Structures are given as structure tokens and as C-alpha cells.
Amino acid sequence: MKLFITLMISSIALLSLNACSLKVKPEESCNFVRNSLQQRVSWNATLPINIYIHESFSREKEAVPALTAAIKTWETALGKHLFTIAGVIGGSPVPSRDGVSIIYYMNTWEADKPSEQARTTIYWKGDQIVEGDIRVNDKDFNFFSGDSLVASSVDLESLFLHELGHLLGLSHNDLSGSVMAERLASGYKRREVNSTDLASLKCEY
After folding, report:
1. How far apart are CA 63 and CA 7, in angstroms?
2. pLDDT in tens, 77-124
3. DSSP 28
4. How many structural domains are present in the chain?
5. Taking a C-beta distance cutoff of 8 angstroms, is the pair 94, 133 a contact?
6. pLDDT at 67 over 60
7. Burial of 181 per CB tally in 10 Å (0-12, 13-18, 19+)
8. N or C: which end of the chain has fewer CB within 10 A?
9. CB 11: neighbour CB atoms within 10 A?
10. 32: part of which helix (H) or strand (E)?
11. How far apart are CA 121 and CA 137, in angstroms?
């Protein structure tokens, strides 16, 4: 009987070791950010993403309509409800890892990054994104919205379309015409999700 128990315990220990040594197969990137196991990170089953607007953002009259238009473009392209604007929030104007996804207008910016129009930071656990913050560089750039181009300013709707792509988990790419292309020229509109952007998103959503 003792021998049987010892063998049984040994078998369980061996199974446990085998389970621990199982390797997760890397996923195709589909232009997504990937974790250390090379799995795409996304919001998975936790859609829609609740986004709060910081009071610094809500004071900008052109910002909210541009954001709303960008949200509609992503949702129409994918045919899914992706984002909910959950309300206006106050407090510190500096983004932090606090479990809440917030969009900020920043009138301060790192001196060594004056060409950065905006930045989205996402946090994840495993392959699940749990928070994302968007900050807009209101210190070094002027912005425009609507149909008329302004040569020296950045189109807010195009910018938000790009940053919302990051919030969903997408990385930069170097494809001309993609909303996830790294550079957005001043006085230029890039407001359409192309087939590459949509195919990438469909890998997760």
C-alpha cells in the first residue's frame, strides 16, 4: 500500500512538472502589442472600453466631437460597440496607473519629445488589457477639427483615430494610408480605417 501511494504521489508530481513546462504557442502579431509570451494583448471579452475624459480635455470645445467621430469610425468599421465615454473626471492632470482609462489634454510635455503629438499607454495582465490612458500634447501643437484643413495644425479626429487604435492594442506600422502609420503630418486628414487596419483588429475583436 505504501509503495502504491508513493508511486501515485510521484505520478502527480510528474504531471505537475509537465503542466508547468507547457509552452504557449506564440501568436501572429496582427500588428498588436504582444506580451512576453508573444501573445497579443487586447480587451478580449471586456468590451466596451469605458473611457473617462479628464476635465482638462472637456474644456476643449473641439476635442469631444472629434473623439466621438473617431469612435464612430472604428465602431462602424468593425460593426461592434468598442468604446463608452463614461463621464468627466477631475483630479491630477498627470496620467497614472490607477485602473481607470482617461484621456488628458497636457499643457506640459517632456522637453526631449517635442515632436510627439500624443501618447497612449496601456497596461495588461497576461493577455488582457486592464487600463489605457491617452495624453494629447497641447504644449507643442495646435489642433483643428471639421472639414477645413489648417496647414500648421494637427487634425484631432485623425489623431484620436490613431490613439484609439493603440488603446485597442494596435502598434504602429509603416503602411501608407493606415491610421496606425506612425507619423501624421500637419494640415492632413487621415480619417478612414483601411482594410489592413480592419484585418488586424479582427484578429482579436
Report:
1. 68
2. 999 999 999 999 999 989 999 999 999 999 999 999 999 999 999 999
3. P
4. 1
5. no
6. yes
7. middle
8. N
9. 10
10. none
11. 14
pTM attached to this predicted model: 0.88
Separate counts of helices (H) and strands (E) for the chain = 5, 7
Q: Residue 33: count other Cβ atoms within 10 Å of its Cβ.
A: 16
Determine the Cα–Cα distance for residues 98 and 75; give it in Å rounded to an integer: 26
For residue 130, tell me if it sits in a domain.
Answer: yes
Please give the residue range of the domain that contains residue 44.
29-202
Dist CA 180 CA 172 (whole Å): 5
Residue 7 is assigned to a structural domain of this protein: no
- The burial of 150, by beta-carbon neighbours within 10 Å (0-12 exposed, 13-18 middle, 19 or more buried), is given as middle
**Rg of the chain taking only CA atoms, in angstroms:** 21
Q: Is residue 34 part of a domain?
A: yes
CATH number at residue 117: 3.40.390.10
Instruction: Specify if 23 maps to a domain.
Output: no
